[in-house]
Predict the structure.
Amino acid sequence: MKIAIVGATGEVGRMMISCLEELNLQPDLLDLYASAKSQGTMQYYQDRPLEVMELNKESLKQAYDYVFFSAGGGVARAFAPIAAKHSALVIDNSSAFRNDAEIPLVVPQINSDLLQGYQGIVANPNCSTIQMVLPLAVLDQAFGLRKVVVSTYQAVSGSGHSGIETLEKQRRGGCVKGSYPEIIDLNVIPQIGVFLDSGYSTEEEKMLFETRKILRNDAIQVSATTVRVPVNYGHSNAVYAEFAREVDLQLAATLLKQAPAIQFHENSYITPLAIGNSNDAHVCRLRYGVDTYSVAFWNVGHNVRIGAAANAVNILVAHAKANGKL
């Protein structure tokens, strides 16, 4: 298996390498690409040194089995179509292709059937969306999801490593806002992305569109409020959901316990700090909402793992199994 990672020196790119290592995959070739400033730096895969190469249009004109993109929407739009012409599958972590009706938006535990026989570009969903739709898909199948109201509490690493650096500098007394509209230390900021005419931000719009696309139901109503909080790693979602059928709360708990990629915490709760290096979506504080046709729960996930790199690697594994490559 031949694999390439574009954006290999970034927060998510480095985590993609770690997730591949944790699965003990043994690629025949692993090429790492980044911008010119990172050319010649060294990364390691299972103690094997790999030199980072500068990305250019010729870089991706060779046949890879899988090409990961974690370098932003602009780079993805410019280079992913080139890679898709020469390689079997391109897995893009940016938002560049998520709204394209012809491009699958995949969480493998939910819609891996889209990968059967597929070649081209696959979009990796937004971090907060992935960890939320995993439990919602389970509940949707049992009770028929109709409406979701969610407030997110998103870690600064969601802005890349610069977000962590900004928070750390502010904690040492600095007052530079970095990429944030307000000081983030000892604060919360109810804005992620730019505001649209609707009053929602682009991050909030992503959660609406992506939830519907992944669950294949444009009738689901979604209202999101996305908030940046002074946490390094781990996004949290406070989720309220309404269903077409009455919810059996014990059955819901049992189904969540049995579902892949979900850790259900009964009679307890979990925080972003406590999830460590988990690749799962964590669900706790499951309870009825306003009536027995609704539930509320607390949902935590490592945004760089399940919210990005681990889901991307899971797409590779699901595609490889479905198409006889693994």
